[in-house]
Amino acid sequence: MQARLLTRETGDVSPDDISKSVNADLLRSFAPAPQHRFNGEIVSQSSLDETPERAHSLRAHGAGVSGLALEKFDGRILVSGGSEGSIKIWDLDKAPTPNQGHVFRPVSTIARSTGGKRLNGHSHGITHLAFYPFDPDAFLSSSYDKTLKLWATQHSALTAEFHLNATIYSHSMSPIADHLLVSCATQHSNVRLVDLKSGSAVQALVAHGGPVLCTSWSPRHEHILASGHADGKVRIWDIRRAGGVVAQLDQEDSLGIVHRFRHAAASGQDWTAMPHFRASAQAHDEAVNGLQWTDDGKHMVSAGLDRKIRVWDAGTGANTLASFGALIQNQHAKTAAIIVTPSGLSAGQQVLIWPNQEEILLLDLHDGNVITRLRSPGSTNPVGPRAGGLGRNRITTIAWRGAGGGSGHIAPVMGGGNSVGAIYSAHLDGQIRAWMPLIPGPDDVDETEHVDEDEEVRTRKRKAVDSAYRSLMGRQITFTGTGR
């Protein structure tokens, strides 16, 4: 750290390079953050006084957490969905510091719609949550009750509801488009498009590949959409065209369409008559349940139930042949969360964050090497085709904490108002777990060893550490103040 500060002060390294170098170290130092817990149960103050909150007994959703979304503008509001159908909203700035213990409680709850009461909430388990790309005060939810709902975050108020007559596994919106189309992956073979502006399901992209398990919009072209299907295919659509699929990813193609056309032209073949893709082309040998573009639109990542993760050149459609080894676990026919860190965030390659049953893997996006394996304290994750499948500790989805907006699905700057970065994971056991970079701070000091120090000395130490971090990160990060 001292060397970096020196090179910055002497002008040998730009502030941007310093930031990338620091972020690279932070990404490699993620670890469990059990000091931050989420308690979604309604508990009276009297019972709380009688029975202190114990970490192992805290649950965000008693029946399990099945959905998670974090807004990218301030990195402050976290929304969680329960297997029973409720939705809870959390303010992450309620924690005064990253290192200090804190139990979050929901600032608002959208109750499950039950019995004969006509409530606004979902009547069945939540399948997916996502914030509106351009405004943190709106988010979307889908459920096994076959509805897609739009909510106002601040008031937890329902603003629109769509009945699709099919189970919705997940949904997504373009991070750049002027249109307000929501693509829905459902149990039917067609990709359903819902227009928030008109308030209706306006279009179906017709395919015959079994259920659609995931969709993802291009961050560079507002009308380009990718969908993952149960037949192992990834179909690329231009939603303006009536002709349907414009391309399919092919795991056997490591050259890409551009190189194939050039080769055909060089060899004298009629390249204009060549098809853009093989009709039988498959991205995976089994169902595709995960898709994510990189924020710069240069690559796409896919995941399949064949326990493979593949990285594709988005410009040519070529399989880059990145290999992530036999460690990858993926055996549930539901949308899998894939996080790719923003381009330019850190020195070196981008990082792929993958929920691997009961652990989180941080992987180099292009060479597949494992950077970090994150496990909850006390958990195990044996390697094998059936490992961890029924564990109550299994991760159902993950969310990245970033701030700064940007055009991607996740924010380009690590951390929020009171954190230098975090990953949050949702679990079948009802817990939301936090993972943060290991950084030294004044809260790491054992106060019992310094009981004789006067308050002035302790205050001076805290100011010194705070000043060092402010200089290092290029932003003010305090360890004694409260959230916004």
TrEMBL record:
One of its GO terms (biological process) is transcription-coupled nucleotide-excision repair. WD repeats lie at residues 58-100, 119-161, 205-247, 281-322. SUPFAM superfamilies: WD40 repeat-like. It comes from the Eukaryota. Keywords: DNA damage, DNA repair, Repeat, WD repeat. Pfam families: WD40 (PF00400). GO terms for cellular component: Cul4A-RING E3 ubiquitin ligase complex; nucleotide-excision repair complex. The keyword DNA repair applies. The keyword DNA repair applies. This is DNA excision repair protein ERCC-8. The lineage of its organism: Eukaryota, Fungi, Dikarya, Ascomycota, Pezizomycotina.
